[in-house]
Target: ABC transporter ATP-binding protein
Amino acid sequence: MFKALLEPFRHPKLNVGLGDAASFGSPRGRKPKATAKDWSATLRRIWSYLAKRKAKLVLVLVMVLLSSGLALLGPYLISRAVDHYLERDGGRTWGIFLITLAVVYLLNSLTSWLQNIWMIEIAQETVYRMRTDLFAHLHRLPIPFFNRRQQGEIMSRLTNDIENISSTLNSSAIQIFSSVLTLLGTVGVMLWLSPLLTLLTFIVVPLMILGMRWITRRTGPLFKERQRNMGELNGFIEETLSGQRIIKAFSQKERVISGFRERNARIMLSGYWAQAISGFIPKLMNGLNNLSFAIVAGVGGLLAIRGLVTVGVIIAFVEYTRQFTRPLNDLANQWNTLLSAIAGAERVFEVLDEGAEAKDEGAAVSLDHVEGTVKFSGVSFSYDGGADTLQDISFEAKPGEMIALVGPTGAGKTTLIGLLSRFYDPDKGSITLDGRELSSIRRESLRSHMAFVLQDSFLFKGTIRDNIRYGRLDASDGEVEAAAKLANAHSFIMRMKGGYERMLSVDGSGISQGQKQLLAIARAILANPSMLVLDEATSSIDTVTEIKIQEGLQALMKGRTSFVIAHRLGTIRAADRILVLQGGRLLQQGSHEELLQEGGLYSELVRGSSDSAAG
Ligand SMILES: Nc1ncnc2c1ncn2[C@@H]1O[C@H](COP(=O)(O)OP(=O)(O)OP(=O)(O)O)[C@@H](O)[C@H]1O
Model:
């Protein structure tokens, strides 16, 4: 029936175990493999986090030892009571026995409780450190990493995967350890009491081990795949939520929902198979447990009749047989959680292993002051080592100059800015700032002297004041307002309910595109950088706002070396130099008049834009 239920979602590639999901390290569709080597490496890394709380861990271990020991003592005491107190001493010391047994079980509960809360403390701290490391590392990763991945997929590692590790460390890890201990202890006591009965109990062990192995070999990759599917689904959700407007505008709702259904079905299938197969473990254990129970009871009874074992030993054995299979059962139950935690940890470590943005050179310096002379000499760059995206680019920008970048779409304007900001490094040639190679300047220092006003200026959830202050966190309220006035943003802010204290929702929805730009300009003015990058807005903004933005930009650019990615040629006539790019090559450079006289692509673009304006 379940199969029938899934049928509508089945995709030709949708065979469980043959993941079609996008993955980090592996190409789409590669079968996930979990080898013992991967696992031990992952466990070692988890251990490196746990080891930071060694002292507490030792305490936990002591508690585990005590509680396991006490758990073993119970049946032994009962056996002694049956054989000794009841048979030989006629029950006179029955009261003492009862009190001893009560103390043993009470202590057992106390030590279990202590081990539990201390382990939770260690687990929460460990997960806190992992999450912080992951987040901090994400912020050190180079831009190409983010170019290749969906945000939601990355988010999933910070949330789902870490959560899986957390729940395992909270309870399963210690339970597994305690189960192993109880198991070994039980076997030891059983051997001591009666090697023959122990051997009989063990008849089922090879079957248990074989069964467990068979099952976990199948479930390991499935759990890994489920985590990956979950990550993919999160990526899809994030993408479709942020692209809501486009989805609605192009009436793609049905397609998106069916895309979601397909991914969701993949999670359902991998989750179903992982749980269904691993859910068989406890059943198998139970069945085999009952079998060994029957063997011990039957054969033990025969042995007792012949006087080879006492009744007390048989009672203890029946209890130990249960105690022996209980940790095995627990192990089997915890196995699922452990498997999904290992799968989660692997995905967390995968990101942690991603190379961070190349470290600054050892001798790299921080700059206190920047004049703003930027020089590109014979710069070439390609994104993937293939054809050059930028080819042999040379130009110079003097302090305070406005440099406009023009050219058809895909010409390489954004890439050039990416090199200037050191999101990428050139393959050939050199870029200098005030005569210093960019690579010899610390990235953070370089970027602290730059400000960006982009087409889609990002605003955070917070007040308007906080959003402007993002440019310089120690700016006073007066400085924030002065920057807003220079940017021409003050008057619209004051007209809004709440003024500077008005809360903006996520990404500034609730204010217009033009107003967003004015806030971004105010933010950049407050940052007071020596260099500016402006990506001129292409979206249609009303003329009044556009004039305001232009005035704000003029105020912002004054005295700063500015790079303007210009989409409307009318606004760059005032540029000191215009760089005309096409297909990654710098075709022309000069002032508006010089370029017009020269003819070529620039005059064609100007003619084209005035034609379209006329049209
Ligand atoms: N992350 C990337 N990985 C690979 N190729 C890229 C990447 N970003 C851009 N490109 C390619 O590099 C070329 C230049 O792109 P770039 O974004 O610099 O152009 P642009 O002039 O800014 O275009 P537009 O005016 O449309 O913004 C294009 O062919 C583009 O497809």
Q: What stands out?
A: The first strand starts at residue 374 and ends at 381. Residues 67 and 112 are 6 Å apart (CA to CA).
